[in-house]
Amino acid sequence: MQEISFTVDGDFVELNQLLKLVGVCDSGGAGKVIVASGAVRVDGKQELRKTAKIRPGQQVQLGEIYIKVEA
Question: Which terminus, N or C, of the chain has the lesser number of Cβ atoms within 10 Å?
Fold first, then answer.
């Protein structure tokens, strides 16, 4: 299991961009494909919205990767 902390600038970060910014994928487009595949969970629930607004305090999971979003 890999845990990553990410500090967001502003109120939120779009899910596909978050995956790119933490290095899970190479581009926002690749992030959209990953989200569309159903492999991403936000706070324990499957998330299919590619540009879902991820806010501080939320956790994103992709396989064994856990991303904790902080202010």
Answer: N
What confidence tens digit (pLDDT) does each residue in 1-27 have?
A: 999 999 999 999 999 999 999 999 999
Diameter over CA atoms, the chain? 28
Q: How many CA atoms lie within 13 A of 6 on its CB side?
A: 29
Segment holding 51, helix H or strand E: none
pTM of the model: 0.93
- The answer to whether residues 7 and 71 touch, using CB atoms and an 8 Å cutoff, is yes
Beta bridge partners of 62: 40, 65
